[in-house]
Amino acid sequence: MTPLSWPDDISFAAGPSVYDQMPSNVRAFATYAHCLVHRREAFNNGEFGMMGFANANYWSSAVQRCDTSELPHAQWRAQVIALAKKADFANAPSIQNWCQSHGFVSDASSSSPSNDSNTYFESRAVHELCATVLRAEQEQPSGSEQKSDHAQLKEFAEQVVASEIRILLQTALMKHAGIPVTNAESSTHHEHHVSTTNDDDDDDR
Predict the structure, then answer these.
(1) What digits encode the pLDDT tens for the residues 130-150?
(2) Which of 5, 121, 196, 197 sits between 20 and 30 A of 130, alpha carbons compared?
(3) Alpha helices (H) in the chain, listed in sequence order
């Protein structure tokens, strides 16, 4: 990802930078993927000694300097809202509080999320969600009710992350094939198990 998202040649990259040769929309996809790689590092230190989540936040900010018009912001947001309404999650306080805090709520007065070109999906909110899950793993309370709520939050986070990655890949592939993208995520019934563990062996090459 680094050669497509960083203008200089650096040792962390798999090859020389081609950033200046790429259109802004390509940079946007690469930069967004770059932030997802560092999210996987979680609380571990990676490039330049930065903690994974901190580096992920940096690259999330870098996305805003690109042309983000072709990123599937509306689809991402719509999918998170749909997941939060599922029977498994609809009554979980931690999930609903997170959604409310980050604006992942339905707005009957607005246009359909999948057609809203003004929607911006904030990936840093998902970084925070993953960090919350990992901290709770380390500070697991003894109360069964709290354990149940944490299990729901973890499952929700895994499904959010899986959908985010899938929609990004589907959108990129459809655009490469010249297929109009209207809704890259058409179903929510699949089960997804994306690790939210504190991995330290991933890199961005």
Answers:
(1) 999 999 988 875 555 567 888
(2) 5
(3) 2-5, 24-41, 52-63, 73-84, 93-101, 123-138, 144-176
